[in-house]
Amino acid sequence: MEKSNEELTKANMLEEEANQRKTIFIHDMSMQIRTPLNLIAGFMQVLRDTFGLLSTEEKDNFTDTMKQNAITVKRMAYMLFDVSWRGDQKIYDMSKAVNVNDVVELSIKDFKEMIPHDVRLDYTTTIPDDKCIYTNALYMHRILRELLFNAKNFAPNNIVGLHVDTHNGYIRF
User: I need a surface site. Which of 1, 74, 124, 135 has the fewest CB within 10 A?
Assistant: First the structure.
């Protein structure tokens, strides 16, 4: 009984620690979401109040900034959704054949829409156009998109490289 109580105490401590980490994560995400939402709201107000006074270039700059911040909020919402789903320990459907190059192309399309726009992508693939793997297309796309997003933010010389090939029977990105 004493050993059982010790195990139960340890399990409770682990659960409390996990809840604390989750609370910290949610707090951090809500703080990160607040910044782009404030930027969107601020630029909307400036556009509303001074629309006739702004040049086309200024309007385009404002709307581009608003669009990029909306994309940031959307990404963070997906991350929160993913974390909450994983917390429920649901199983992801990995039984569908997914075309590798199609998912990569979709991720590249997202890359091109991300600010800064002056970062170039060097992309090569040796994967045949008809190559499919069994995975979850949505999560494969999100993972590639996030990797490209992070690479774009920290790109040396404004160049990001993506090479897709096979290695020891695995697809390597």
Answer: 1
């996990």: which residue's tokens? 18
CA proximity to 101, closest of 121, 123, 71: 123
DSSP state of 127: S
Helices 137-153, 100-113: axis angle to 10 degrees equals 40
Q: What is the rounded distance in angstroms from the CA atom of residue 147 to the CA atom of residue 52?
A: 40
Distances (CA, A) of 122 to 23, 45, 112, 125: 39, 38, 12, 10
pTM of structure: 0.62
- If you ran DSSP here, which 8-state letter would residue 133 be given? E
pLDDT tens sequence across 44-102:
998 989 989 999 999 999 998 898 888 888 888 877 777 666 555 555 678 899 999 99
Give the span between the Cα atoms of 137 and 140, in whole angstroms: 5
Give the Cα-Cα-Cα angle 169, 149, 112 (nearest 5 degrees): 100
How do residues 136-154 score in pLDDT, each as one tens digit? 898 899 899 989 988 988 8
Comparing CA positions, the residue from 104, 115, 120, 29 lying closest to residue 71 is 115
